[in-house]
């Protein structure tokens, strides 16, 4: 069966398209555009899932929401490809980064974005959040300085999960050449044929 991906432009769901391309699983994209004024997802997504957010996939009648849950679902569907490495230490790293992406790194980035849009005081408050973001980016840099991929020597679903927050950080939260290992990692994933194919399928994506 072909997996249906309910994909919102400029969003986390670009990771799912990339993962599907890496796995070589057949899929169909249903694109949704953001409201040009609010930048929110359109109400049509609520017909797919009550939260009205993307990504959501449909696979032979099964509806799966939340990026991390979808990623784990796809690893299982692909018989473990892009899943946990063989060694215990690498498995622990895999699990950590898989959850760190949305659980620890993404929240301060999102707060910085939202607060920065508040007139007059937003910029000052966002400046207070930047040190927290920098702490995370320094940690990521130290880890990527030790190994080519987040879990170890080969790419995994942990790298796919980490792509969006680091792309967002490069776009709006100070990630630059002062953290060369992280920038090199971003350049490396962007050069992958599967990533490039996913961009063609997904449409507008400002972070690549």
UniProtKB/TrEMBL annotation:
Signal peptide range in chain numbering: none
Lineage, opening ranks: Bacteria, Pseudomonadati, Pseudomonadota, Alphaproteobacteria, Sphingomonadales
Organism: Sphingomonas longa
The name this protein goes by in its record: Glutathione S-transferase
Occurrences of domain GST N-terminal (ranges): 1-82
InterPro entries named among the record's database cross-references: Glutathione-S-Trfase_C-like (IPR010987), Glutathione-S-Trfase_C_sf (IPR036282), Glutathione_S-Trfase (IPR040079), Glutathione_S-Trfase_N (IPR004045), Thioredoxin-like_sf (IPR036249)
Domain GST C-terminal: 87-208
Pfam family, one: GST_N_2
SUPFAM superfamilies tied to this protein: GST C-terminal domain-like (SSF47616), Thioredoxin-like (SSF52833)
